[in-house]
Recover the amino acids of this structure.
């Protein structure tokens, strides 16, 4: 079903928080925060959004590459209109650990835009957020968007981790993330849609991105991108129609992340201690096993020697003493014998 592209473009281009019920309340622009695993198509989707919106020649603004690996190593911002900016956050390789803290700090707009993102360890992230306070804008209204490729298989454990990421994103920003599924014709689209719906996601957009290699205009692609941007704008407008306080929300996000880092460090320390104890126990067990193996081998050698002596004595007893003298078996020399 075709959409009214002109009406949608008009709504997006004329959006302003000033038009909300209580005015802007201090908000000036929507920050569409794209996040997710590295190599799932965040940069390509941003290129698609810019391409569709400008409706001109395709340009690889976000340096998207037609490969599986992620290439974005910084938070890059791309203004779409005066009131809407797209943000390409650095993708993570795994869920959990120190990377996740950095991702959530980006998502909560607690770190500066257009700077290289370096993964921090331990409590470094708290110091990093503190030093960034003067360089982040509390006037930004954050909308989280998870970009996920349908070509990726997902284990039950990974599904649980993804659900936790979505929930933390909602707690941090106050908005349950929108999900954009990429490579929709190359994977199990229906299963991925069902998976995210089961996680509580209400808004899911499926798209085949425009790329440097394939950017011939298609109506369905254009319409899907426009619908996505339109829904972001309408959601932001709906939420800011209620009383909001951007300063209070920024403080809340900062406190949440400080507590998150502290809890994460406690967990990491417990895991490190558990691993240390496990290794110590393993090494101790191996040392005990090695020692026991030495004892067992020595005991086995003694038994074999005793058996050889017994067989030799039996053989001697069967011999005729007049025909063959009986010799005492010659035992291997010991250290005491040589003294």
């Amino acid at each position: 079903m075709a959409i009214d592209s002109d009406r949608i473009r008009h709504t997006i281009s004329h959006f302003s928080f000033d038009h909300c019920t209580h005015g802007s309340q201090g908000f000036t622009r929507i920050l569409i925060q794209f996040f997710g695993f590295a190599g799932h198509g965040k940069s390509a989707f941003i290129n698609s959004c810019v391409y569709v919106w400008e409706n001109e020649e395709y340009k690889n603004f976000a340096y998207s590459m037609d490969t599986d690996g992620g290439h974005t190593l910084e938070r890059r911002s791309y203004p779409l209109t005066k009131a809407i900016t797209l943000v390409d956050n650095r993708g993570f390789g795994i869920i959990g650990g120190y990377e996740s803290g950095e991702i959530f700090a980006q998502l909560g707009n607690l770190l500066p835009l257009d700077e290289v993102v370096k993964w921090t360890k331990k409590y470094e992230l708290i110091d990093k957020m503190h030093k960034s306070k003067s360089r982040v804008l509390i006037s930004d209204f954050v909308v989280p968007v998870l970009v996920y490729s349908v070509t990726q298989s997902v284990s039950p454990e990974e599904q649980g981790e993804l659900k936790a990421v979505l929930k933390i994103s909602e707690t941090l920003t106050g908005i349950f993330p929108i999900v954009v599924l990429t490579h929709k014709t190359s994977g199990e689209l229906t299963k991925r849609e069902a998976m995210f719906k089961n996680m509580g996601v209400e808004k899911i957009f499926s798209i085949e991105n425009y790329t440097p290699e394939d950017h011939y205009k298609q109506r369905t692609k254009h319409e899907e991108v426009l619908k996505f941007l339109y829904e972001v704008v309408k959601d932001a407008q709906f939420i800011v129609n209620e009383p909001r306080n951007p300063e209070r929300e920024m403080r809340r996000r900062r406190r949440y992340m400080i507590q998150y880092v502290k809890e994460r460090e406690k967990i990491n320390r417990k895991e490190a201690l558990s691993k240390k104890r496990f290794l110590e126990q393993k090494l101790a067990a191996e040392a005990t096993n090695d020692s026991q193996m030495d004892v067992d081998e020595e005991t086995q050698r003694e038994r074999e020697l005793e058996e050889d002596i017994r067989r030799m004595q039996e053989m001697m007893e069967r011999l005729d003493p007049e025909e063959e003298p009986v010799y005492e078996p010659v035992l291997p020399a010991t250290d005491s014998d040589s003294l």
